[in-house]
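Data availability (excerpt). The following record was deposited with the supplementary files.
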Amino acid sequence: MEAFVKSNINNGIGSITFFHPQSNSMPGTQLRNLAAEIEKLGKDDQVKVIVLKSEGDKAFCAGASFDELIAIKDIDTGLKFFSGFAAVINAMRKAPKFIIARIQGKAVGGGVGIASSADYTFATEAAQVKLSELAVGIGPFVVGPAVERKVGNAAFAQLTINATEWQSAQWAKEKGLYAELFSNTDDMDKGIQVLADKLANSNPEAMTMLKKVIWQGTEHWDELLIERAGMSGKLVLSDFTVNAINQFKKKA
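Predicted structure:
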């Protein structure tokens, strides 16, 4: 299967699904398409709530595409790539609809950022998390504000500094990243359907107002996340990062 981002609308529930054959990793095109799809459903009056998910039964999202990272040769290209994650997070933040995330498997780096940017996140016990950026010479600069907002500074620091270790789905739930945890995807999907149906029949105006309240204090993120993208775009050019990414690719 080739990479895709697709959506459908059913009874007021807008579902967005993304897929990439490399563990649902995120090249720049995929990020831009995902941001555009979120913006599109956010503006669609038929949609009352958005469910965001990835294809497959393994990784939810492996974060940035290593193939694309290693191909970055100048600061402008680096900025453009990492701005893709900024666009997705800001699209989720600014969408006037609640976004439910479905995390069926491991989330790494940008995948943790996407999970953190949802308004309500369901996960399975297989949904471990890791912010691996420091291990390849950069840092979770773009996704950092979203992750820290969700789990707090101490848990964010733990994820960031101990960049090679997985944290369990139970840990993520205890820190507030996951709202509900399930032993299997069938039970999780039933839970998602129940909540999505309730929200699809709730007052759209009230939900839009609530969303603004919940995200209060993030109005500067349009500028902040681009600034952070520049930081990552600069670091990805370093010899340390190039060598580290090549070592990771050999292990993959």
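Summary of structural features: The mean pLDDT is 96.
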